[in-house]
Design brief:
The protein has 244 residues and is of the alpha+beta class. Among the domains are: 12-64; 139-242, Glucose Permease (Domain IIA), CATH 2.70.70. It is 42% helix and 26% strand. It is built from two helices and twelve strands. Strands 3, 4, 6, 7, 8, 9, 11 and 12 form an eight-stranded antiparallel beta sheet that branches. Strands 1-2 form a two-stranded antiparallel sheet. It is rod-shaped and about 175 Å long. The N and C termini lie far apart (173 Å).
């Protein structure tokens, strides 16, 4: 008859004590498979923690790398912004310079235009027959009709003069007054000077206001003065009156 062998049970004992003198000692028996499970769990926890720490380090490195890359990119953008600001300032300076130049040119053009207008006004004034046609006083009679005129009785030694700047367009013999001189003033006005004296200008000659057309002698004291505007006769008195 065989004897039954008892299986040997192995246990792990954990002893818990303290440093106190009267402290008791506690023993905790743990079966091997439980111990193995605890060790396995502990290893898994430690491994998980180590893996987590490693993973966090990798993530931190990646974040740090991206942060540095972003910092570098930010510096590049900041440099570009500085360059753009410098370009904008340079362009603003050019614009201000151009505006100043335009202002100066505008003032110059305005002054030139004003000067030209004044010159044109002076030329127009010089070309408008408003002056008295004699260089001395005389009696005057206004003659109405289709061809109105002014008849002057001038004193001997006086001069019949052009009443404005213009061009002599005709010097003719005159059935009533001996001779006539036509002066075109270039602005629609034509003045006609009729007198017995000898004309002192020729056709095509340029005359100025005050240019002598006839010398008044003993036999040519009567002087007929006429005026046309745009091809029609007008009364010279109207022009003389308007301008004094």
């Amino acid at each position: 008859m065989r004897c039954k062998k008892h299986r040997r049970k192995d246990n792990h004992v954990i002893i818990v004590t303290s440093e106190a003198v009267d402290a008791s000692v506690k023993q905790i028996r743990i079966r091997p498979w439980i111990m193995k499970c605890m060790i396995l769990v502990l290893c898994l926890v430690i491994g998980g923690m180590l893996g987590y720490i490693y993973y966090e380090q990798q993530i931190w490195k990646a974040v740090s790398g991206k942060y540095e890359a972003l910092q570098q990119e930010l510096k590049v953008y900041e440099n570009q912004i500085v360059d753009l600001q410098a370009q904008v300032e340079a362009r603003n300076t050019k614009i201000n310079d151009l505006n100043n130049t335009i202002t100066v040119l505008s003032e110059t053009v305005n002054k030139k235009t004003e000067t030209e207008n004044q010159l044109m006004a002076a030329i127009e004034q010089q070309s408008t027959p408003t002056e008295f046609p004699l260089n001395s006083s005389a009696t005057m009679e206004e003659v109405q009709g289709n061809e109105p005129s002014c008849l002057f009785q001038a004193s001997e030694g006086s001069m019949i003069i052009a009443t404005a700047n213009g061009t002599v367009v005709a010097v003719n013999e005159d059935a009533l007054y001996g001779h006539n001189v036509w002066v075109d003033h270039g602005n629609g006005y034509i003045t006609i000077y009729r007198n017995q004296g000898e004309p002192m200008v020729e056709q095509g000659e340029l005359v100025s206001k005050g240019t002598t057309l006839y010398l008044v002698g003993e036999k040519n004291t009567t002087f007929c003065y006429q005026m046309m505007k745009d091809g029609s006769y007008i009364s010279p008195v109207d022009m003389l009156t308007i301008n004094g």
